[in-house]
Design the sequence.
């Protein structure tokens, strides 16, 4: 450590060093924090100099510099976290878990959930939302995957971090779903369906089957080192241990009856030379109760983990062929399932060939419940002839929390390095390494050790290294030249690197897994259609718009109402969902609310193509609309009042603490209700006014809603942020704000004459719900 010794009577300060013995070694490397003062005056009193010296000893300038920069970068990180990751409202990360719930904790194994699929065959499976099944009791129009999440159990009083490995058992017209659930308290896997099976060891992969009128379950219990078979005493929740089938830690095992014999498939990852998640063995028997004999070709597989050797669900038969489900663990554990057609299965031979499943993976990334991986499939045929399947999925890869911790720590370490570099360039930090080196040992030296210490070759290398290291700060300062314009630019760039590193670290530590998840209602999820209206001059807006919003979790389809010019092809747009371009004959704002029988969802989000918002805000608005489907639910409030009526901006509504309209440039509506009202005979005069002014279509819809009900007809949701991209171009529809407001004020007067007043209505902002009350 460098100690500054102040000069007296104007003499220059000299630096002295204090020797410390660390690990009993005299070789020391340190950073000396310099503080130079060239302006001492002769009339300073000695006690002032002593006070200065004491202060420099207690609070070295280098320490203050280092601490100051860390505080500055920390402040940048806090502002970044507040802007990007703070939620000014209460939300649950999964299916409505309350703040006091122990469930749905971040888990290194993942955040698995379960979805349902239907199809005419096992190779044409579509998610449940494609079936367009509506359920009023859970406000799901339509019901969407996932159907079982960690919160489904946690809300029911069974704390769970994730649910996975689903199996169906069909009993008449009733389907029973068994799955693994990881207990949030014990971190142990249990078998879920209530809790069907709870042992003192980890359980998963609950393979359920029938044999001679008895129902059996063979879960994975590799942690105990055994493969156990349980029999149902009182199906589905009461089970007893029937038999230990194998004294081996087999994982993801199943039993099938094929060609008159029973076959047991499983993987043992504990053997010497076994490739984890790339091994498969087979045994055969005349009964599922055993005894089991090994297949002649065991191990069937001992290959790379991406091949699909490890089982990934129940095998199935289709068109007289047997198919095995395997899981690809190449990129991450459980990346995807693979389907293998079994061509030969005998006691002495086994052959299979991979076939395509026909499953379309989501392109929504972490915003999709299965965007990162899906590793288990159970598909069975119903009595109707159709096929049903359950599949698990996860939005993040395995080990994501650890990965983010490592990257976050590295980012914060980079900030520290940047501060040191800035200190060197400012001349405040000077790294010093003594040129003399001599090791001190607590034991007596022998001749060999003394000879090694005196070795000219070794000592010269040390001196050379120390000399070069000492020259680094001076060399860096000489090249950067902090006092010049170029040097200041270098300092600014380095500072920016530190700020970026701090924000990156905050993102990995505080920003979670990056997913903008949907908000469930009554434990269920749903979807909506996104509709925007545009024309050829705004094509660049549309491309950015589609790319962003198609990745939002609950968006089912995007409809582009094309009012003018040559429309693009759907393939020209980078979309994760289907895009339908509806070309209109007339350039009219009324087209926004045109009846469209091809819309498959009850909810439509009317969203202008020049408004950019976070998917999280869109999802939150959708959740609010599901609670109030009879209202216009949106993000831009207005208050129409005064005599005469005058149209004003959002600031006016906030100043008067209320609103009575929601602009449909960003609003959810029930399209069947809204479009029917808009195109009714009663609204004809209003539509003519919209065409005359080329404005006010959203004001008209608010009047039509208010005219149809005496209760609240609009609901405001405050977004975390919203960006109007038209401000950066010359293609904004309403470029002149004063003229735009004047036209809308005229619309208010005319609509009030036709449909009755709206000024008497006012709904207060729910500050507590939106979380913006200061």
Sequence:
């Amino acid at each position: 450590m460098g100690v500054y010794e102040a000069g007296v009577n104007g003499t220059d300060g000299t630096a002295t060093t204090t020797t410390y013995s660390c690990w009993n070694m005299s070789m020391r490397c340190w950073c000396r924090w310099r503080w130079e003062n060239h302006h001492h005056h002769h009339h300073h009193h000695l006690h002032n100099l002593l006070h200065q010296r004491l202060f420099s000893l207690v609070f070295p300038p280098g320490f203050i510099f280092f601490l100051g920069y860390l505080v500055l970068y920390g402040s940048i990180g806090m502002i970044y976290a507040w802007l990007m990751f703070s939620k000014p409202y209460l939300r649950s990360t999964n299916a409505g878990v309350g703040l006091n719930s122990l469930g749905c904790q971040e888990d290194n194994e993942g955040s698995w959930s379960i979805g349902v699929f239907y199809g005419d065959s096992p190779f044409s499976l579509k998610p449940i939302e494609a079936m367009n099944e509506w359920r009023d009791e859970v406000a799901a129009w339509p019901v969407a995957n996932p159907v079982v999440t960690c919160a489904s159990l946690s809300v029911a009083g069974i704390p769970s971090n994730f649910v996975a490995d689903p199996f169906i058992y069909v009993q008449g017209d009733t389907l029973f779903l068994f799955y693994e659930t990881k207990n949030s308290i014990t971190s142990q896997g249990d078998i879920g369906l209530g809790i069907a099976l709870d042992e003192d060891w980890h359980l998963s992969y609950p393979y359920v089957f029938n044999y001679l009128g008895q129902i059996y379950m063979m879960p994975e219990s590799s942690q105990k080192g055994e493969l156990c078979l349980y029999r149902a005493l009182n199906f589905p929740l009461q089970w007893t241990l029937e038999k230990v089938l194998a004294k081996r830690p087999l994982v993801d095992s199943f039993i099938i009856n094929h060609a008159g014999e029973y076959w047991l498939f499983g993987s043992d990852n504990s053997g010497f030379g076994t490739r984890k998640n790339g091994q498969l063995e087979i045994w055969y028997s005349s009964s599922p109760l055993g005894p089991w004999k090994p297949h002649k070709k065991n191990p069937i597989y001992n290959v790379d983990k991406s091949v699909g050797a490890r089982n990934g669900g129940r095998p199935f038969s289709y068109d007289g062929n047997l198919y095995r489900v395997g899981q690809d663990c190449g990129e991450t554990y459980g990346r995807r399932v693979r389907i293998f057609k079994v061509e030969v299965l005998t006691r002495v031979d086994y052959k299979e060939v991979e076939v395509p499943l026909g499953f379309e993976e989501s392109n929504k990334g972490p915003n999709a419940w299965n965007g990162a991986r899906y590793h288990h499939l159970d598909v069975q045929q119903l009595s109707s002839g159709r096929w049903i399947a359950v599949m698990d999925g996860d939005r993040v890869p395995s080990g994501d929390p650890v990965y983010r911790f490592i990257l976050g720590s590295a980012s914060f370490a980079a900030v520290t390095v940047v501060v040191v570099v800035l200190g060197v360039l400012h001349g405040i930090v000077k790294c010093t390494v003594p040129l003399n080196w001599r090791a001190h040992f607590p034991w007596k030296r022998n001749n060999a050790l003394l000879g090694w210490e005196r070795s000219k070759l070794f000592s010269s290398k040390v001196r050379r290294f120390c000399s070069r290291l000492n020259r680094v700060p001076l060399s860096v300062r000489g090249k950067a030249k902090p006092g010049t314009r170029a040097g200041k630019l270098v300092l600014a760039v380095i500072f920016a690197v530190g700020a970026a590193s701090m924000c990156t670290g905050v993102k990995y530590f505080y920003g979670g897994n990056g997913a903008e998840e949907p908000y469930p209602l009554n434990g269920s999820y749903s979807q909506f259609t996104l509709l925007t209206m545009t024309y050829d001059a705004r094509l660049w807006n549309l491309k950015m718009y589609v790319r962003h919003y198609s990745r939002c979790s609950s968006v089912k389809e995007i409809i582009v109402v094309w009012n003018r010019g040559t429309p693009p092809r759907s393939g020209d747009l980078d979309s994760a969902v289907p895009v339908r371009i509806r070309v209109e004959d007339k350039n009219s704002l009324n087209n926004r609310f045109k009846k469209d029988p091809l819309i498959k969802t009850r909810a439509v989000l009317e969203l202008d193509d020049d408004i950019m918002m976070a998917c999280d805000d869109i999802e939150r608005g959708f959740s609010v609309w599901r609670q109030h489907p009879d209202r216009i639910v949106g993000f831009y409030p207005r208050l129409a009042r005064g005599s005469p009526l005058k149209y004003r901006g959002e600031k006016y509504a906030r100043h008067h603490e209320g609103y009575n309209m929601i602009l449909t440039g960003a609003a959810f509506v029930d399209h069947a209700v809204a479009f029917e009202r808009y195109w009714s005979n009663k609204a004809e005069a209003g539509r003519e006014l919209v065409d005359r002014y080329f404005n006010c279509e959203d004001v008209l819809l608010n009047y039509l809603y208010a005219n149809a009900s005496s209760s609240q007809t609009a609901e405001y949701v405050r977004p975390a942020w919203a960006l109007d991209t038209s401000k950066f171009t010359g293609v904004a529809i309403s470029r002149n704000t004063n003229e735009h407001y004047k036209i809308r004020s005229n619309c208010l007067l005319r609509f009030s004459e036709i449909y009755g007043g709206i000024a008497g209505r006012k709904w207060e902002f729910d500050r507590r719900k939106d979380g913006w009350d200061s």
Q: What stands out?
A: The CA atoms of residues 437 and 459 lie 7 Å apart. The two ends are 48 Å apart (CA to CA).
